[in-house]
Amino acid sequence: MLQVRVTRKTMDATDIAVLELASIDEARQPLPAFSAGSHIDVHLPNGLVRQYSLCNSPADSHRYQIGVLRDSASRGGSAAVHDLLKEEATLEISSPRNHFPLAVDASHSILLAGGIGVTPILCMAERLSATDASFEFHYCTRSLDRTAFHSRILASAFAPRVSFHHDDGDEDKKIRLRELLESRRGATGVHLYVCGPQGFLDWVIQSAQAVEWPAAQLHYEYFGAEVSKSEGDAEFEVQISSSGLLVRVPGGQSVVEALAQHGVQVETSCEQGVCGTCVTRVLRGTPDHRDHYLTAQEHAANDQFMPCCSRSKSPVLVLDL
If you write DSSP's letter for every residue of 122-178 in order, what string do you get? Predict the structure, then answer.
């Protein structure tokens, strides 16, 4: 864990706070380097742990910057950032991890950001610009006042490569996604990166699939998702391989919650199947995958699952715990 201090906190757009974090002791514990697309775990004052993408340039060695939207449906994370974290506050964070990296062999990159999903995309733009790589950046928001980092982008070296698209803006300036994808589909080495709310991601991914965009050249990251629940969720059991303990998981309860009632703690963070914190190995049985973290290939292998949100298709799942 890294000990950091909030050196600056500003409201960059409506309901979006931007925080700069610096090491408490730069000489003894400098901040680790990071790559475009990285995120950190932030341990908040109310005891929650949340993941936030780094949105400053990877060339920065003295600070990390994050942007956090105040979510009206917050489960305590965004509210803690907005209401409890003040300038000069100290907190713990993890070292950066990257599950959303840039492809090193891309001939051209298309960056698509929806709302606060701009944070990792902005970091990618900084890196691509610094290396003089070919890219374009499309930023979709509800309105100008909800467009975080607008002034920073306009003042950047890559501003000419950025197109802003607002839901309440001129019709001729709204993104024509299918046209964009079809115009680039046949080009060699063109990679597409997208981050945003679930609805935005689903729209982009489905549009890419509709034009047969190569799956290996489509990269995305969810920063939040609705956990799929059904009144008809069947009861099943999970067995702990190390002890043989058999735990019943009724409909409407997660595996994590059921295990906790029997003293088995699984580390979690997002509780929405997007961060990867709780990935657990499956030794026997068939998971019912409901996460947005594992790849399609990993889902097909059925040897790991996310107990915060996923369930079971078989009567029993044996877990490597």
Answer: HHHHHHHHHTT--EEEEEEES-GGG-TTHHHHHTSTTGGGEEEEETTS-GGGS--HH
Residues carrying CATH 3.10.20.30, the chain: 236-319
Q: Quick one: average pLDDT of 141-148? A: 96
Q: Which residue has better confidence, 83 or 72?
A: 83
The pairing of beta strand 16-23 with beta strand 64-69: antiparallel
The domain defined by 108-222 carries CATH number 3.40.50.80? yes
CATH architecture of 236-319: Roll (3.10)
pTM of the model: 0.82
Q: How far apart are the first and last CA of the chain?
A: 24
CA atoms within 13 Å, Cβ hemisphere of 69: 21
Has residue 229 got a pLDDT over 70? Answer: no
The identity of residue 184, as a single letter, is R
Beta strands in the chain (DSSP E): 2-13, 16-23, 39-43, 49-53, 64-69, 90-93, 108-114, 135-141, 162-166, 190-196, 218-222, 236-240, 246-249, 280-284, 287-288, 304-305, 311-312, 316-319
